[in-house]
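Can anyone check this?
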Amino acid sequence: AGEMIAAAKAHFGVAAPETPKAIGTSDASLIWSGPDQFLVLSKDGKHSIEVLAPGFAGSASLSDQSHARALISISGDKARAMLAKLSSIDLHPDVFGVGAAAATSMDHTSVTLWRGGDRNGLAVFNLLVFATFAESLWHTVLDSAAEYGVTIGHSEDL
């Protein structure tokens, strides 16, 4: 684990998260996904598996998940209330602040959840879900948010 953390620091300029948290750089996010493991979300494919492999050789096993997962990002003044319907995680900002992460489930679907930086003064919650379950979870999210109103948008942030 120590070698993997050092390899992440050498490549990304930050150490790999050792506890449930997400660490952002200018072109990637490193998200804790379990003991001694983390996910890398790369902007513009800069950190492809081919680029990462030499630096992590001998210290980590790499697996390309580019097409295996879908990202759902949720924000708004009722985002926390809506997510509380789907998760047992305490999402209050005193407990689940910016950068906090969790491997959890929502509506019987495994997700990696982390709190991104606030946008326009509102909390941003990111859900990374296996692509095969994304549509089902998406509809569950929409159903849970219906009483608050929903605006669907697209971002190139990640």
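Reply from J.R.: I decoded it. The CA atoms of residues 75 and 119 lie 8 Å apart.
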